[in-house]
Specification:
360 residues; alpha/beta; seven-stranded mixed sheet; six-stranded parallel sheet; 7 helices
Length: 360
Amino acid sequence: MTEAILLVGGKGTRLRPLTVNTPKPMVHAAGVPFLTHQLARARAAGVDHVVMATSYLAEVFEPYFGDGSQLGLHLEYVTEEEPLGTGGAIRNVASRLYSRPDEPVLVFNGDILSGLDIRALVDQHTQAGADVSLHLTRVTDPRAFGLVPTDGAGRVTAFLEKPQTPEEIVTDQINAGAYVFNRSLIDTIPAGRPVSVERETFPGLLAAGAHLHGMVDSTYWLDLGTPQSFVRGSADLVLGRAPSPAVPGRCGERLILETAEVAGDAKLTGGSVAGARAEVGSGARIDGSALLEGSVIAPGARIRDSLIGAGARIGAGTVLDGAVIGDGAVIGEDNELRGGIRVWCDARIPAGAVRFSSDS
């Protein structure tokens, strides 16, 4: 297998305000756009041709990655004029694929951080003689997901909507967002209209008697669709819990990019990252957080499990816990923002305007 499709067209509405100016796969995780980690892992698995299915802020991708040669890849870009859904996006890029009808094509979702053994998925697909193979993962509470039960040989037996009662939870296996299609199957997806691969394509193929195979992989897996999970994923990459050959430095408690400026007595822990040209003042404490490009953290600030957008400024003595600060926002000194609060891009919060009491 030498080629893949990357689905990177989503608007990332759950990640706002991080995605107001930046498409979700291009938000930086562990110092580089998240998409860089996916491309690097694909290349390490032997993929050399990737077609990106773009839509929202499509103009951002090609200027950054170009033809992919710096990553050892051949990259192409196909933009949807109107959103086509996951299945429609796959079908929309079919003309750019080189594979023969019986050859496998890898498909990735652009917001999943995973330790999946890509080669093992492809090898199992070939050995099973499958038409489509799905990466499945097990979760403790599957109620928020569609369930994918398999038989003893790994063959998918059903696609079940999100269970509403304990009796409906017949498996803890869920669709983990990576697939292998035989090239010929992609051409069976209807062209020119929205199609959900999860709700229409897979159930339709199963009903038609196609062989859908599931590979259960219990390595690291995280959907980066929310700010909290995105911050966690970035920290896990820095800590080495999530594998990636694209982390720009050694894994450990912190990642400080070369152009960042961090005061000698500032402390970064828990997989925190100081992005390009970020500044961290004296006595600041940063734990499990990501400081994006050009952000400024004033002396004495305390930041935990938070994401600070590009060019944002955090005032002296301010406390952030589980906060998301949009690009260019300014948080004045001596504020306290907690509990998943989101501050929009370019917003201004005056000094001392927001405080939480110790018993609130």
